[in-house]
Amino acid sequence: MDELGEVNFRLVRSRSSVPRARALLRAKLGEWRAGQAAVETAELVLSELVTNAVRVVVPGDRMIGVRITCRERGAWLRLEVSDVGDGRPEVRWPGELDTGGRGLLIVDALAFCWGVKERSAGIGKTIWAEVVTPAAVPAPTVVGPSVMS
After folding, report:
1. Which residue of 77, 89, 125, 140 pairs with 131 in a disulfide if CB–CB is 3.0 to 4.6 A?
2. Can you tell me the distance from the alpha carbon of 127 to that of 91, in angstroms, rounded to the nearest whole number?
3. pLDDT means per 10 residues in the chain (149 residues)?
4. CATH 3.10.180.10 is held by the domain 4-134
5. What distance in Å separates the CA atoms of residue 38 and residue 115, rounded to the nearest whole number?
6. Half-sphere exposure of 136 toward its Cβ, with a 13 Å CA cutoff?
7. Quick one: which H or E segment has residue 5?
8. Which residues pair with 4 in a beta bridge?
9. Rounded alpha-carbon distances, angstroms, from residue 58 to 37, 70, 79, 85, 124
10. Where are the domains of the chain?
11. Are 116 and 125 in contact (CB under 8 A)?
12. How far is CA 62 from the centre of its chain?
């Protein structure tokens, strides 16, 4: 049976929210008995998504929304981070000496897939990423040549 776990939480728009998000994720994945590889990858992906949301220019003291969905003991994770900022994030290719701008490049490299969707209220966006371990992806079926007698 496919077990499903889900958690939602809000974070203030502060640098301190990045380690807080990682700690909350690690705690929930521990409860859900996720494997270590999934935990490490998910922590890095969530860190980058929350960091981007913290940096987005938004009006007032708007918070960041986080939703984590877990299936198959962490073999499949969906991480969503919502903010009320304008614009759509883009993968950038920073130079060797640039000190930032690698967040979505890291997400793109580690996530099975990722994307952006408008929030249901029409204000802001949700950036989502799916982290999938090899255990969640079925191995391709190899069909040998048929032998005719």
Report:
1. 77
2. 13
3. 80 94 94 88 96 85 92 88 85 75 88 90 88 65 52
4. no
5. 19
6. 20
7. strand 4-11
8. 71
9. 34, 29, 21, 5, 9
10. 4-134
11. yes
12. 20
